[in-house]
Amino acid sequence: GILSVERGQIEAAQSLGLGPWRRFRRIVLPQAMRSIVPPAGNMLIGTLKGTSIVSIIAVQDLLYSVQLVYHRTYEVIPLLLVATLWYVAVTSVLSVGQYYV
What pTM did the predictor assign? Predict the structure, then answer.
């Protein structure tokens, strides 16, 4: 993301007499964040969605916990709906957060 900032922007900041730290903080970083945030947010949301696949490997996560409960109670559909709602809620919150960042 930092490499995506044009060299002319840095040169313009140098011509204004900004020091290296201030130039980075005020000029480079805000422009670089526009390139960094969307892919990072998408990777975070993709990782969250991928955790549902982890239950196949028998690692303790939300879907695995739901499976343990519905094997005892035999209420498969309601518990899977609850797990789905949790995944939708968390990914929605992360998507909204990514939008505003």
Answer: 0.55
Alpha carbon 87 to its chain centroid, in Å, reads 14
Mean pLDDT (the chain) is 85
Q: What is the CATH number of the domain that holds 79?
A: 1.10.3720.10
Strand, coil or helix: 58: coil
33-53 pLDDT, tens digit each = 989 988 988 888 888 777 766
Domain count, the chain: 1
Domain extent at residue 58 = 2-100
What b/e readout covers 90-100, taking b as 16+ CB neighbours within 10 angstroms? eeeeeeeeeee
Residues 49 and 53: their CA atoms lie apart, in Å, by 8
